[in-house]
Amino acid sequence: MMTLPTLQPFTLQCGARSLVLDKPVIMGVLNITPDSFSDGGKLFDARGAKMDVVLRTAENMLRDGATILDVGGESTRPGAAVVTEQEELDRVVPVVEALEKRLGAIVSVDTSTPSVMRETAAVGAGLINDVRGLEREGALQAAADTGLPICLMHMQGTPQTMQANPDYSDVVDEVIEYLADRVAACEALGIARERLIVDPGFGFGKTVEHNLRLLADLPLFTKLSLPVLVGMSRKSMLDKITGRGVDERLAGSVTLAALAAERGAHIIRVHDVRESSDALAVVNAFKKVATAKE
Ligand code: 8Y7
């Protein structure tokens, strides 16, 4: 009988809460920004976070099957406005505090800013998600000091320039090598390996072909022996593949989530929690049979 690899199991200590990764879990996206590409302005306006809408949206995500909520105050969409450190703090800190206190959720903070890492950790954040792999000045030390798990993501270039001309000789080798280097930098600073998650960074300086190659070869990331996070929800590769605008990418996004779960992703970052959760339930049921011993 044919056998598929089973998921490498991990447990992360997210502050007071344990995150068990023995099957894929969902991270729901909460953008506290006026200008994120898919949902900018829904949860934030000129007066700040729309806290009632944020809480309602978050509650629905948890009910629909999210295990983690990812709160971000800076859009990395190419061409998005630059936020100041103070603006980012003002957007994110009250939301993290409210989600943790009122909903008891594992709250991930999507940030590259050292002060945001420190201040959100102080109000109960459970995870740091840095699309810049802790490369900003002071970020490694700030993340180390929080004691929290950290997701290290690969990006080629910067958000402004990354999609201009993505270029690799071997995208999978280069992304794995970058992540291994960042893991080493973390360990050199005393961040235990047990605190790290890796992410290929779909869409961050990658063509459609690069993204699909990374997805196809996701099982190769197991050689890092760390949990793998992926985010492909509503991204522009779906425009290239299906021709759909950002509000019409649900089916494409769910398909990518299912493929990632099948190929060994531990955490799947999505906008559409309910539909993605159903897809993961189907993949899990399928994998149980596909991996069963005769
Ligand atoms: C990712 C992400 C975004 C991703 C991780 C978007 C913050 C762009 N994408 N974090 N963040 N991985 N770890 O389209 O792929 O949602 S923002």
Structural key phrases:
294 residues; alpha/beta; TIM Barrel; eight-stranded parallel β-sheet; two-stranded antiparallel ribbon; globular; binds ligand 8Y7
Describe this protein's structure.
By secondary structure, the chain is α/β, with parallel strands linked by helices. The strands form three sheets. Strands 10-9-8-7-6-3-12-11 form an eight-stranded parallel beta sheet. A two-stranded antiparallel sheet has the order 1-2. It is 38% helix and 18% strand. The longest helix is centred in the N-terminal third of the chain and has 19 residues, at 85-103. The protein has a single domain, classed as Dihydropteroate synthase-like (TIM Barrel, Alpha-Beta Barrel). It is globular and about 50 Å long. It contains nine helices and twelve strands. Helix 2 (85-103) runs parallel beside helix 3 (114-122) and helix 8 (250-262) packs parallel to helix 9 (273-290). The N and C termini lie close together (7 Å). Strand 4 and strand 5 form a beta hairpin. The model has no long low-confidence stretch (mean pLDDT 95). The structure holds ligand 8Y7. Ligand 8Y7 binds at residues 29, 72, 76, 110, 129, 131, 151, 153, 199, 201-202, 229, 231, 235, 269.
